[in-house]
Fold this protein.
Amino acid sequence: MLGLKKPLETSEHTDSYYAATANINTRYPPLEGSHKTDVLVIGGGFSGVNTALELAERGYQVTLLEANRIGWGATGRNGGQVIGGIGHGHSRFKKHIGAAGIKALYDMGNECVDIVKERVAKYNINCDLTMGYMDVALKPSHMEGFIEEKQELESLGYTHKMHLLDQQQVRDQVGSDLYIGGLLHPTGHGHCHVLNLCLGEAQAAANLGVQIFEQSPVTKLQQGNNPTAYTAYGQIQAQHIVLCGNAYLAGIAPKIHSRILPANSSVVTTEKLTTEQLNDLIPNNLAICDPRTALDYYRLTADGRLLFGGLSNYTGREPSNLNEVMKEKILKVFPQLQDTQLEYGWSGQMGIGINRMPQLGRLDGNVYYMQAYAGHGVAPTHIMGRITAEMIAGQAERFDVFAKIPHWPFPGGKLLRTPSFALAMMYYKLKDELL
Ligand SMILES: Cc1cc2nc3c(=O)[nH]c(=O)nc-3n(C[C@H](O)[C@H](O)[C@H](O)COP(=O)(O)OP(=O)(O)OC[C@H]3O[C@@H](n4cnc5c(N)ncnc54)[C@H](O)[C@@H]3O)c2cc1C
């Protein structure tokens, strides 16, 4: 039985492979005193930093408040898989957004990866970005899903190549006997060092004049047309406020917080592997995912480790013996790593919405929010920042596509929503095992 505990958090980056290999060490000061700004962004993950950067590129005066450190949340802890696409099952929303809305979502799903590539090139961000990704099938129903996905993407005009692979072809790409086939995306998706990407984007934003304050949690938010945010030692009045706290945004905006469930996922990295081991595991340096509810996701790092994630659960807790449990999971995929040590292990929280679509919208007056990317936010956060910047600049078309998609609060209130959805996840895990 898995013993679960609440992860221990400080206001510094969690002890991870990413923090240990961060290549920018800038510290931004805490907020003090009374300030005014055009746009205040709350939260310094990919959502907040990219919103700030997009606005600064358009000439706005922007201030960003981060409760801890830039990239402290899911952004600086995730699997680093840069995957295109926004949410799942777009056709479910046809009655709300029409065929044009569905096409717009599809286009945004492509654009989000392009933004990551553009940022890295334009601002010279050193974050090991590399393209190449593969979905792997554990059973025939997974393969059927990949065939449908490929057909759908092709029918929408997807320009990147995709290849359906049989068992042997997958075995040539990944040193595991677990899989029966796969869908290879050699150029459309990829992976990177996410903390270095976010720190580089924050540096670019600061160079364009964005005022960044770290270790400045917003404790109170006054909404309306001249909204104001309060921290322990300061306050800022803004023309617009954008809430980008995602799963970590507790307290200051209960209305949107009730629309997501904070779910935990855990990641480990091995010690550095030999060139021979790396070539045996993933010779073409792909990022890899299986399609289960509690999936395995993994890739190699630029310094030659296996970075392996999984154990997603809706309790918001991590296993008390994290590395031990993760080692067992790794050995199911790669039994050849029996004697390999794990050097880092950590967990993070992601926001999950009831319909599994990212949420972008407006609260009272000029307060906007974005959240709920589930385990698929590295690239989508980048387009959300752009669309919110467009909205603030007066172009509402793409923002309105999201605003029309309904996002219901989780049933059960604060006390019951986590246990109910922990149960729901057990059901889906069981279904993954049986079907
Ligand atoms: C373990 C894990 C693995 C994942 N793997 C992948 C993956 O491989 N690929 C992928 O695409 N996605 C992945 N995801 C999802 C992805 O990481 C997230 O969707 C994305 O990083 C969300 O970014 P964000 O900026 O919205 O939120 P976060 O990165 O969580 O940032 C929110 C920030 O807001 C700050 N904040 C909160 N409240 C306040 C406040 N009151 N005042 C000031 N600041 C505040 C927090 O301190 C935090 O830094 C994973 C997530 C997890 C947890």
